[in-house]
């Protein structure tokens, strides 16, 4: 059974940085796509960043130039490096993986506030 476990969330001041990690229970090359989504209170879940099995990436316009998605096969982990954080980045961040089905992590809270 595929499991995804996020970590790295927390409270950070505007302009600060955080790195989220998502550890998979299987090889990350099992998945066609690995992605990070986020959901803010009262809003729909939205795609933040994604990386395909070939290494292609795409980002939401709101995070381009500030966030970077990467993966480390040996650790079966995908990362989201978040720089220059803004209060509007506050949300629960979810790891997502697509293989034969769709898999989600439990989410990690990111709060950007002074």
Which residues sit in consecutive blocks of at least 5 with pLDDT less than 50?
A: none
Please state the average pLDDT score: 96
What is the tally of beta strands? Answer: 11
Could you spell the SSE succession in H and E letters?
EEEEEEEEEEE
Largest sheet: 7 strands, mixed
Separation of the first and last Cα atoms: 40 Å
Q: What structural class is derived from the secondary structure elements?
A: mainly beta
- Provide the gyration radius in Å: 13 Å
Secondary structure: helix percent? under 10%
Approximate strand percentage: over 45%
Q: Count of DSSP helices?
A: 0
Overall 3D shape: globular
Relevant terms:
single chain; 114 residues; mainly beta; 11 strands
Question: Could you please describe the fold and organization of this structure?
Answer:
The protein contains no helices and eleven strands. Strands 2, 4, 5, 6, 9, 10 and 11 form a seven-stranded mixed β-sheet that branches. Strands 1-3-8-7 form a four-stranded antiparallel β-sheet, with no helix packed on it. β5 and β6 form a beta hairpin. The model has no long low-confidence stretch (mean pLDDT 96).
Give the helices and strands, then pairings.
Blueprint: E1 4-7, E2 10-12, E3 18-24, E4 33-39, E5 46-52, E6 57-59, E7 67-72, E8 77-82, E9 91-98, E10 102-104, E11 108-112
Parallel strand pairs: 2-11
Antiparallel strand pairs: 1-3, 3-8, 4-5, 4-9, 5-6, 7-8, 9-10, 9-11
